[in-house]
Amino acid sequence: MPSLDDLKKRIKSVKSTQKITKAMKMVAAAKLRKAQESAEKGRPYSQKMQNIILNLTKSINDPTNAPKLLVGTGQDKTYLCIVLTADRGLCGGFNSNICKLAKNNFNKILNDGKNLKIICVGTKGLDQIKRGYGKYIIKKFSFKEKKKISFAEAEIIGKEILDLFSQNQFDKCLLFYNNFKNVITQIPQVQQLIPAETNSVNNKENEVNSYEFEPDEDEILEDLLPKNISTQIFKAFLENAASEQGSRMTAMDNATRNAGELVDKLTINYNRSRQASITKELIEIISGAESL
Amino acid sequence: MSEKFLLEIISPDNSILKSEIEEAIIPAYEGQIGILKDHIPLITFLRPGIIDIKEDKKETKFYVEDGVVEFSDNKLLILSSTVEDLKLLDQQKINFMIESSKKELKNEAINDKLKYFLSYKINTLNEIKN
């Protein structure tokens, strides 16, 4: 049985932790609104971009001459995995969920006897992946200093990927990030960047169109595909940012609630043992008086 | 001439404009294109220039540097990361953009495509300035 003093200290420390988690929840909620807004605003751009590429792909007659970014190198040997995580912790399962999904995929790739290369974006994911897959990491990025991630950052990473691709460093490129569904649900996702995914998008409305191109398809595709990669990365960034805040908000909300429960429990304990000690003293006094 | 079609201008972080318009003139890669209702489906690039939108006798202008344009089913879609409303561009910003492009143009190492791009950019900006 801990002493009264111990209990008092314990209650105080839990209460101050509760204050911190409450404040963090509030900050996360404020940031979430902004992040959610920009994630939702960013969605149409990447979607429409994908649609245009889809339409272009359909009108390509000669797949052997198509840009490699679209059809791939024809090989399936080396995988480049880009793992997007947060730079800060204390956001529930956010980072571990992405890493878990990524690690599952890493294992699959390695078990198939293929080469693996990893680019880590965000320090938290790096820490987790470094432990098991440190030797595969070829590059790491962190935008910790940036308050808000803009298109320029996505372009930096996009350029890096394209450089590696033009040097034939890899055949397939996968992107791992959290898709923001709502505040409570974020779904870790894997998206294939290179070769571009062309069959996953629903193509109901675009079936009939035959387009006029200016300049011709190949030239457009050659210019558009690199841009699409930056766009998709940027979308992933936005989704990730919103997911991070949402995840942190729920995590901190839970923490605050748990702290409250703990304080209640400790207070009852404290009162009980205080009462017990008073009773004990009383008994001592009474029995002392009786013996006189 | 009152037949309208839908125009959407979208940048990576925002939807800039969505409205029913009568005519749009866009600076496509191989020259300016005017688009009216029932234009045939089209996909093209933008070079630096001015998007000119006519809507109920009102005229709106945007400055763009690059982007993709898709027209289908009477929907005109402009995707660009560099759209600016002309009204929001002030002299100082234009001058700064001209200077930095000129500096870049002096660099011998750049390829023809970029040179073409930059010279168009400077021309357009000068036009706006006057």
Topology at a glance:
The complex is a heterodimer of chains A (292) and B (130).
Chain A: H1 4-58, H2 68-71, E1 78-84, H3 94-111, E2 115-121, H4 123-133, E3 137-141, H5 151-166, E4 172-180, E5 186-194, E6 212-214, H6 217-291
Parallel strand pairs in A: 1-2, 1-4, 2-3
Antiparallel strand pairs in A: 4-5
Helix pairs in contact in A: 1-6, 3-4, 5-6
Chain B: E1 5-11, E2 14-21, E3 23-28, E4 31-35, E5 42-46, E6 49-55, E7 58-64, E8 67-72, E9 75-79, E10 84-85, H1 91-106, H2 112-129
Parallel strand pairs in B: 1-9
Antiparallel strand pairs in B: 1-2, 3-4, 3-6, 5-8, 6-7, 7-10, 8-9
Describe the structure.
With about 290 residues, chain A is of the alpha/beta class. Chain A has two domains: about 5-20 and about 250-290, Helix Hairpins; about 35-250, ATP synthase, F1 complex, gamma subunit (Pyruvate Kinase, Chain: A, domain 1). Chain A has helices at about 5-60, 70, 95-110, 125-135, 150-165, 215-290, and strands spanning about 80-85, 115-120, 135-140, 170-180, 185-195, 210-215. Chain A has a five-stranded mixed sheet, with helices on both faces. In chain A, helix 3 runs parallel beside helix 4 (about 125-135). Chain A is elongated, with a radius of gyration of 28 Å. The two termini of chain A are about 35 Å apart. Chain B has about 130 residues and is α+β, with helices and mostly antiparallel strands. Chain B has two domains: about 5-85, Sandwich (ATP Synthase, domain 1), CATH 2.60.15; about 90-130. In chain B, about 25% of the residues lie in helices and about 45% in strands. In chain B, strands 2-1-9-8-5 form a five-stranded mixed sheet, with no helix packed on it. In chain B, helix 1 packs antiparallel against helix 2. The longest helix of chain B has 18 residues, at about 110-130. At the A-B interface, helix 1, strand 6 and helix 6 of A face strand 1, strand 5 and strand 8 of B. Strand 6 of chain A pairs parallel with strand 5 of chain B.
